[in-house]
Structures are given as C-alpha cells and as structure tokens.
C-alpha cells in the first residue's frame, strides 16, 4: 500500500497597489472644446466642461455656416463664427467660480456649460 500525502499550499497574492495617476496640480493646461456646426446642427450640445478659475478654455470651431457663439460669463464673450472655419480657436479664461453657458445664437442651443471651480 502506498500512502501519499499531498500538501497544497495556496498563496493568495494580494495586489494592493493603487495607482492614482497625477492629479492635475498644474492648472495651466488649457481645456480644449471641439465645436462643429454642420447641416444646421451643432455638436456637442449640453456638454459639461470642468475648468478652474484662471485656466484657459480653447474652443476649436469648425463650421459650414455663419453663427455666433456666446459665452455667458463674467467676463462675457461673443465669438463670430463664419462658414468655412476649420478648427478656428477661440480662447476664454474664466475669472470667477460658477457655471457659464456657451450658446450658439444662430442655432439656439447650449453647446456646453463650463463648470468653474476655484
Ligand atoms: Cu447668449
């Protein structure tokens, strides 16, 4: 008779490394918002963009029509959009915390709301 004793030892590895990546402490990086107006429609609509006070927002606008983008903030800004624009850059730097709507006045839509944190 043969008696075999088998001992199995299970080592359960516990990976406990939590990689959090870098929290953007360099608030200087601009936030890019791509806006496209084509065939009577604007993209995006009702987007939400988080940004810090003093951090630049760059809207890159491509359009096949004349329109007007209006930044309902303090300071306020109006950007004239012309047909044929391809990635035209408009810049805005929020100065106070709060919510700022960017609208098209031609198509009567809210493109995005900037959520400005201190
Ligand atoms: Cu407006």
Topology:
Blueprint: E1 31-38, E2 41-43, E3 47-52, E4 57-63, E5 67-71, E6 77-81, E7 88-92, E8 98-104, E9 109-117
Parallel strand pairs: 1-4, 3-9
Antiparallel strand pairs: 1-2, 4-7, 5-6, 5-8, 8-9
Please give a handful of descriptors for the protein shown.
4-stranded mixed beta sheet; 118 residues; 0% helix; binds copper (II) ion
Describe this structure in words.
The strands form two sheets. A five-stranded mixed beta sheet has the order 3-9-8-5-6, with no helix packed on it. Strands 2-1-4-7 form a four-stranded mixed beta sheet, with no helix packed on it. Mean pLDDT is 85; it is low at 5-24. Strand 5 (67-71) and strand 6 form a beta hairpin. It is mainly beta and 118 residues long. The chain is 0% helix and 47% strand. The protein has one domain (31-117): Immunoglobulin-like, CATH 2.60.40. It is globular, with a radius of gyration of 25 Å. Copper (II) ion is lined by residues 70, 72, 103, 105.
- What distance separates the N and C termini? 79 Å
- Quote the average pLDDT: 85
Q: Work out the helicity level.
A: under 10%
Biggest sheet strand line-up: 3-9-8-5-6
CATH fold name? Immunoglobulin-like
Bound small-molecule species: copper (II) ion
Name the CATH homologous superfamily: Cupredoxins -  blue copper proteins
Number of helices: 0
- Work out the number of β strands: 9
Rg, rounded, reads 25 Å
Highest-level CATH class: Mainly Beta
Kindly name the structural category. mainly beta
Low-confidence stretches: 5-24
Protein name: EfeO-type cupredoxin-like domain-containing protein
Organism: Aeromicrobium camelliae
């Amino acid at each position: 008779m043969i008696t075999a004793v088998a001992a199995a030892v299970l080592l359960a590895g516990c990976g406990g490394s939590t990689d959090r990546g870098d929290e953007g402490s360099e608030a200087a990086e601009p936030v890019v918002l791509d806006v496209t107006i084509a065939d009577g429609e604007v993209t995006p609509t009702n987007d939400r963009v988080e940004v810090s006070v003093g951090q630049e927002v760059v809207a890159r606008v491509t359009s096949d029509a004349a329109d007007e983008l209006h930044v309902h903030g303090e300071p306020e800004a109006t950007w004239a959009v012309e047909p044929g624009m391809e990635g035209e850059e408009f810049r805005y730097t929020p100065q106070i915390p709060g919510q700022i709507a960017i609208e098209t006045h031609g198509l009567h839509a809210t493109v995005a709301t900037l959520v400005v944190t201190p």
